[in-house]
Amino acid sequence: MRLSRTVRPNGLSESAEKAEGEQLVSMTDARTLGDRSLARCPVSHDNGSWSVWGNDEARRVAEDPHVFSSRVSRHLSVPNGMDGDEHRRFRAVIDRHLSDDIIVPLYPDFEHIALDVYGSMGDSFDANVFGSLVAVRCQSRWLGWDAGYEDELLAWIADNQAATRSGDYSRTAAVAEQFDSIIRRIIADQPGEATAALVNDTVEEADGERPLTHAEVVSILRNWTSGDLGSITYSIGIVAHFLATHHSIAEELRRCDETGDTRALDMALDEILRIDDPFLANRRRTTRDVTIAGQDIPAGALLHIQWTAANRDPRAFGDPDAYNPEGNAARNLVYGAGPHVCPGRTLSTLELRAALVALLRGGELTLVGHATREESPAGGYAAVPVTRVR
Ligand code: HEM
Using one digit for the tens of pLDDT, what is the confidence trace for 337-354? Predict the structure, then answer.
């Protein structure tokens, strides 16, 4: 989500707890908190920042970068923390490396990786463990990273999830630094073809192209990979949970896989993640006074676009849990909207499709007991224990 790039919402549990008057019913699940906040108001203000929960309102903020700036942090964040022409120039670099021409040919390898990882799981396993292995191996395949980094990257995913869960800024800052140190070693070591192409790439300036700086390369790689390992892991856990609790839809998707209907599989993934979006929120700062949903927000205010809640807005989707891939596609905000819309959508969809196909081909999944929800400010499940019936 990518969370220096993906910002988990701040103060969410605290504010929701106050609003519920000390009542701690499922108070740790970010999705439940989002639903409740949205039911009260599509835009709210608490603890010095604003949250935009509604679907129309979230889209409006994401599509208006002049009023809602992405420059929210003093740290370099390429291209997430940039606006206007600077964002356009760096976004062009990112788009070159995530183009369909580069990403689509990787799919057979992703499928091979997912089937291989699935084959190494026992009959009962935690789908998040399956997901984290698929995420790390697909990413390493894409970026050409040595398998020797796998254990360190897996340990990092676990540390990052624990730090996010703790809501402690110093812990999240420490894991961000830990990730930067892995990235610096990979660049200095054997970067692999795709990473080397980025290291040697250039960015447009007023007087021509100039090489990317080391700091820019590290920031790009951090934003490509750090949160994404987490988002893909959580997404695979969510998809496995959905299959294990919706057997007739799983059967339908199994037939789509058999007939090679990849469009239907990809639409199903978008819809499953709409129902339960693990990528919670991103930040913006207002550049002038503005009114949304009747709320007057002053210039300079910090605001969170609450994607998970916006993807479950009953005004946009009716029953937020009703599965309707075709009907809900147009209002789906899982990959954002506007100039910062996710450039990793194809990569993400292909990694998730590979995982989905492996889960479908492995036989029917059922839950072993209960899956455990993550605690706000993280989304998705902490663990999804499943068993397969071949
Ligand atoms: C399930 C997986 C993913 C989800 C749900 C997701 C979602 C999003 C969303 C909602 C945004 C918009 C952020 C904003 O408006 O501030 C975004 C931006 C971004 N995503 Fe993704 N993403 C995913 C996977 C990926 C992957 C695999 C990559 C690349 C390796 C990636 C790279 C990025 C980057 C670089 C941006 C910032 C774009 C910009 O500022 O112009 N994402 N993503």
Answer: 999 999 999 999 999 999
